[in-house]
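Quick start: what a row looks like.
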Amino acid sequence: MYAATRTVSLLGARGHVVDVQVDVTNAVIDTVVVGRPDPSIREGRARCRAAVENSGLRWPVSRRVTILLSPADLPKRGTHFDLAMAIGVVAADPEQGLAGLLDDVVLIGELTLNGQLRCVPGVLPMVMAAAAQGVRRVVVPEPQVHEAALVDGVEVYGVRSLNQAIALLRGDEIPEAPPVEAAPAQSLLGRRQHARLEQVDLADVLGMPEARLALEVAAAGGHHLLLTGAKGAGKTTLAERLPTILPDLDRQQSLELTAIHSLSGGLPRGAAVVTRPPFRAPHHTASRAGILGGGTGRVSPGEVSKATHGVLFLDEFPLLPSDVIEALRQPLESGEITIARGDDEATFPAAGMLVLACNPCPCGEYSTRARENRCVCSEVKRRAYRLKISGPIADRIDITRVIEPLSGHERGDRLSVPESSTTVLARVVAARERQQARYAGFDWQLNAHVPGPELTSRWPLSEEATRRLDVEVYGGTLTRRGATRVHRVAWSVADLRGSDRPGLDEFEVALRLRTGADLDLEMLRPSRGVAG
């Protein structure tokens, strides 16, 4: 006797439809699962048998049950295979009347011993993968219907038990069953932090015209940013307000980010699609797996992936472990991160903006102004602290700013009215619309993502700016990678100003933003298109 059902296997954020083939024969009595299952799937044999028998159905106890998860060379993990395996065993009995009813349906859900269903992480990316491969019907635990229904073109059915799933497939009347316990909602602490960040605004930031310009250019082009300054200078204040000048996510970005939260079990009840760019700020003592992704058993996305299409803020960056710092090279350059363990590999998106913040020295009191310098660190300690930001990492940062504490007259200037996030956001949205029009038909949308060769050949700087860039490269001020990043930033400045092509003025602003040099007052005037 033979039957086949379907479910989805996840490798990182990518899903693959898996055929669950069940063969029941007269041979040595046993139940075996083959096709590279992990321990949670092998343990599922016991869960499935108990669930089938306690649901009043027959398990072939006197025969050999072989369950193949095909393709057999693909690693499989997760308890969500339970429902497909249990229904496959039931369907192998011709008397159950399930023949021909399982061809175009994917089954997702963990079973308890009494046949009830439990919620599982990653439902959204599973349904997205199923839809991409032509599946149009999906059965999931009842509380996760809203999450699965975010995918267009798929009929989603929510069930509470194994018996309900079988009745649904047969077209029979759905029996009663206790409600399925919903997945844990977002923690109270997380909700409070989210509510606090929703209240911040750039209007809260006094002075700092150069830092505000750097934030605006970074937001316009999706550039990575390094903020350096004494403790209390306002680095965190600026970083927390960066998401307020980022536009809402489009549909594709929303689904990608929501899928990452689904994989990590972080979707709240009701599972509305995420529409705003995220802000993630892990502590510098966070583990490598917590920041980059990994963990034991199932590979989970880290903070760098949860910040996709948003902001990842790493405060006290030099205090992070060296291996974590160096491992950030890949996501900084490619916009994705690959976690490899043995012969398994999982790839997650990591296309967010990285904002690094650090003090000028371990004690945080160093200042280039002699009258304000209260540093007690030796020069050796200061040098070692700065060297934690290695050359390859620094070379991947687009914009660098030194944040100086506000002076007394800046704090008390009642005539100065800082621009609000709404005002700056309007300019950022207009700049991004120019980029989307320019890059229509290509695989990127923002200046920060355009490959260097394409940038040089299709969207070059003006001739004068190009000659100036060559001087900086041949003079050793910029590496070739640094030159590409200055080119990208120059386009972001031009987009904010409404220019058709970056000229010498836009290049000069980009170069100073890249190197951390001071900006002239003329560069900060609203009449130039980028207000400070």
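That is the whole record. The domain at 2-170 is CATH 3.30.230.10 (Ribosomal Protein S5; domain 2). The chain has 23 helices and 18 strands.
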